[in-house]
């Protein structure tokens, strides 16, 4: 599998490696399938993580470990969407807005997770080149995937927040194709968020705890 870490081509002076290109193209397809609320989004996400894991394993342990977490969350998303009985007329999940309690929990988990992972990366420098932004992107990705698995519109917002840091970080670390893909992610996220937002307005919202019946 050494070819995954070999150069595919050069773009704007940036050396594009096969694993970076394949893994991120699959990630782009995953986001497009997520927009369509297709169950296929999860196996494609898993395959993307697997490709990047194979590419990183043996020389970038931290990056390989992060892909394992991504694959586990992809399996959770597949399980969650399969068991979701609240589906629209087209057979896909019904998107909804998170409750304030869910939003608070995700924000708290993202903040605590980013600090914990960054400290881990700082303690073991071989796991990451840029501990804080790398931790932010990793934890933000997991939170976004979790929210997507639960059918929450907020997962698009989480992806936007990841993109803000992901684009410059990938270019800075030499993963130019990832940087370009993150730019395209941004456009897809805006369209996907609009679609889920409009669909959620046609879907009965969960009753907040303590709200009058």
Automatic annotation (TrEMBL):
Compartments it resides in: Cell membrane
Spans through the membrane: 12-34, 46-79, 104-124, 136-162, 174-193
Main location: membrane
Pfam families: NMN_transporter
Highest rank taxon of the organism: Bacteria
Coiled-coil blocks: none
Membrane topology category: Multi-pass membrane protein
InterPro entries linked: NMN_transpt_PnuC
Keywords on record: Cell membrane, Membrane, Transmembrane, Transmembrane helix, Transport
Family listed: Belongs to the nicotinamide ribonucleoside (NR) uptake permease (TC 4.B.1) family.
Full protein name: Nicotinamide riboside transporter PnuC
